[in-house]
């Protein structure tokens, strides 16, 4: 695709930016959580039908898909996630959440609006489209495995053939407004949740020798897990093990029978994720055995590593440069230890995710509220660049496959 064409895409995206912003704000007011997003789904279905598309709703979740068919050719997938977070918004925006305890604090409302904007412009150009675009509007990204459910429901077979590529954008206040950040290979970590129940023997606080204090043992387990990371994990294949909650006891003078630890592990390779799972069990069992206590370890698998295909990432990088300029497209030096369920799609289809910077210019980079903060505010002007990038990547992927 020529730079002139990409410039035209950006110009077209800027022309419809007021509509994209209005849609984003409508969605921002009605945040929903998990895999059941009926109001959000209804807005997406309404907008797709207005474009002359035939939306399909999910069977196991409130997902939405739609197909833009051009000339005979391959399929490329574009994804936008739809769910919000359990936060009470404190931004002061005049379009703030109307539901207490719910907020679009991760910017998924912007993702939906950008993808619908791209769908609008792609549908208008469908006669020249060298293939098919599969639109994926996904619930349940925030720890509800929405992408996995959509795959199990037959997402990749909806057009009759597996997509040749997949692309997603994620907005972020970590980067200046309008920049696009990318990384080939591991972009985001795999994550697991663990729950450790340490069983000792209760007693009076004045006589610890007659009890078996699970709190003291839990403290030793926490230190041992941190030592495990520093001494058993290769610094060039990093991992995080974090205990984020401790529950034990009922009164100041009672040694409880049970202490519970809850936390998360992160890794940027599947091998390291598997190793951390084994080692966590070994450390907990070993420390507890040394004190005569027992432990029950429950590991809840999270998302896999978000692995961006190098060739597709390079294709997307070139298109991003043509859309926003080389100075605004930057390679990330390291993965982010957060997790993303677009990883499930990237296990099946070569593709990439890029981050779109949307930090307001007046915000101090070190102090700006980040994604998942109840005070986060995203600059809306960069949404035009997001719309154009979705389009440019899809068109380039289809053209490359048909040439």
Short recap of the structure:
With 403 residues, the chain is α/β, with parallel strands linked by helices. The protein has helices at 3-15, 17-29, 38-50, 108-124, 146-152, 214-232, 270-291, 310-324, 342-348, 383-402; strands at residues 56-57, 64-69, 75-81, 132-138, 165-176, 180-182, 185-188, 190-199, 203-204, 239-248, 254-255, 258-267, 294-301, 306-308, 329-331, 351-359.
Q: How does the overall form come out from the CA principal axes? A: elongated
Instruction: Compute the number of helices.
Output: 10
| Sheet of most strands | 8 strands, mixed
Write down the CATH topology of the largest domain. Aminopeptidase
Helix/strand order, N-terminal first = HHHEEEHEHEEEEEHEEEHEEHEHEH
Q: Please compute the radius of gyration using only Cα atoms.
A: 24 Å
> What is the rounded distance between the termini?
12 Å
CATH architecture term of the largest domain:
3-Layer(aba) Sandwich
Structural class: alpha/beta
Overall mean confidence score, pLDDT: 96
- Taking pLDDT < 50 over at least 5 consecutive residues as the criterion, the unreliable ranges are none
Counted up, domains total: 2
| CATH homologous group name of the largest domain | Zn peptidases
> Strand content of the residues, in percent?
15-25%
Oligomer: single chain
The CATH class of the largest domain? Alpha Beta
Strand order of the largest sheet: 1-2-4-3-5-16-6-15
Q: How many runs of DSSP E, i.e. beta strands? A: 16
**Percentage of residues in helical conformation:** 25-40%
